[in-house]
């Protein structure tokens, strides 16, 4: 006899969102546009940022270890100008673009490598931030619907955020609620029952400890707000992010995950409808 059908997974109680590239337009688009407009080989900037972990300027900023000031921009530019890192990257880029062996490309780059791209790190950073001020046209309306559902759920649905962030200088327009950007910032933060900002807690994704901290904070919120609540576990969460490494750690802890691909947030909304059973405007066949 065939085995009995497995029980379908229960509806997650916590819908946990990344911000950039999920709820708002991805700052990665600004990087892609910068590379294209300056004839920089694709993914060099992302490669350089990732390869500088865990102690690069970008990682230190997102952990709140250093302030967002001129010294950060100098350090960020230095990371993006690292010649040995560029040589390794360019060798792989050459091999991929020519569809040749890595060893063959390495023979050439041992003596002939273009100069490291001269990147305006400060301009790039603020362009990334400007780009990510815009709500995603697919995910943001879904988030609003989900917020309304959570408000009527008496604690059965929790909406939370876990985002790698930086702390803007005091008085910056993005913090000024008299500006459109400031009002948008306030509205976005108000969507979430719990908001974990990496720069404010001294940890960043994909460090395992920030996920564990997030689950603890979520449990504390539920126990405090809802009488008799036993809190939540990682398995009660579904996490949406646009970075594979961030999702991998979440899965290791027991969370369900949804990958939000660049420019394809609508697809992720449909998947979120499937996982939650809610009609979030994505066109999926939600179970209501």
UniProtKB/TrEMBL annotation:
Protein name stated in the entry: Uncharacterized protein
Top-level taxon: Eukaryota
Regions that span the bilayer: none
Stored PANTHER family: HAD FAMILY PHOSPHATASE, HYDROLASE, PUTATIVE (AFU_ORTHOLOGUE AFUA_1G12880)-RELATED
UniProt cross-references to InterPro entries, sorted A to Z: ACAD10-like, HAD-like_sf, HAD_sf, PGP-like_dom2
């Amino acid at each position: 006899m065939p085995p009995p059908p497995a029980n379908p997974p229960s509806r997650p109680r916590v819908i946990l969102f990344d911000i950039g590239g999920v709820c708002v337009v991805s700052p990665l688009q600004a990087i892609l546009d910068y590379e294209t407009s300056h004839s920089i080989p694709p993914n060099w900037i992302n490669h350089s940022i990732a390869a500088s972990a865990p102690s690069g300027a970008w990682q230190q900023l997102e952990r709140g270890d250093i302030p967002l000031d001129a010294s950060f921009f100098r350090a960020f530019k230095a990371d993006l100008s690292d010649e040995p890192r560029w040589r390794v990257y360019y060798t792989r880029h050459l091999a991929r673009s020519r569809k040749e062996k890595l060893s063959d490309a390495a023979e050439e780059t041992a003596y002939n490598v273009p100069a490291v791209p001269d990147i305006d790190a400060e301009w790039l950073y603020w362009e990334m931030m400007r780009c990510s001020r815009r709500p995603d046209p697919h995910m943001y309306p879904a988030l609003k619907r989900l917020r309304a559902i959570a408000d009527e759920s008496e604690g059965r649905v929790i909406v939370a955020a876990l985002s790698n962030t930086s702390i803007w200088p005091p008085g910056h327009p993005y913090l000024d609620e008299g500006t459109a950007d400031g009002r948008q910032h306030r509205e976005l933060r108000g969507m979430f029952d719990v908001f974990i900002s990496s720069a404010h807690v001294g940890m960043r994704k994909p460090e395992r400890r920030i996920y564990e901290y997030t689950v603890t904070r979520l449990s504390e919120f539920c126990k405090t707000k809802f009488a008799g609540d036993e809190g939540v576990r990682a398995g009660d969460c579904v996490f949406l992010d646009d970075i594979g490494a961030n999702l991998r750690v979440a899965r290791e802890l027991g969370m369900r995950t949804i990958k939000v691909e660049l420019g394809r947030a609508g697809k992720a909304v449909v998947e979120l409808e499937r996982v939650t059973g809610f009609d979030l405007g994505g066109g999926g066949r939600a179970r209501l």
